Amino acid sequence: MLPLGVSAVTVGFGYLVTLDALPGDLRTSPLLVPVAQALVVVPLVIRMVLPVLRSVDERLRQAAGTLGARPVRVWWAVDLPLAARSLAAAAAFGFVVALGEFGATSFLARPEAPTLPVAIHELISRPGELNTQMAYAACTLLMVVTAVVAAVIDRLRSPQARVGEF
Predict the structure, then answer these.
(1) Does the structure show a pLDDT above 60 at 161?
(2) CA separation (Å) from 157 to 48, 58, 164?
């Protein structure tokens, strides 16, 4: 849960400092940005899914074990079906958060492959009406994708309660 309490900028800077001390130059790896985004997003996803997994009735697991199911089969046949909606909603929420993550990616994104928030920042920081309009278009794209994912999350609701409601 540490990334929830630490700024994403600190996470990105920490990646640069740590990878500089390692042999080889891993700072140019194309996997660096997704790994940093995952580090920022995973605690949020865990906080969404863990209560659902904890609420699974232990008697269901015990019954499956009594019938001969191994622990992996118990998880596959009992836990996963009961937590599937929550897992899907958490994954979609994590996707949106990672898509809009700016703090860590501002340190790690390469100029030839910027993320959408980094591209927006670069466009806004340049003078000119065309750059501003392209930044507005990129912001609109980010908002539309977020709204579509939120609508999909809302469709994952069970008949009793909506997944995304607080």
Answers:
(1) no
(2) 14, 24, 8
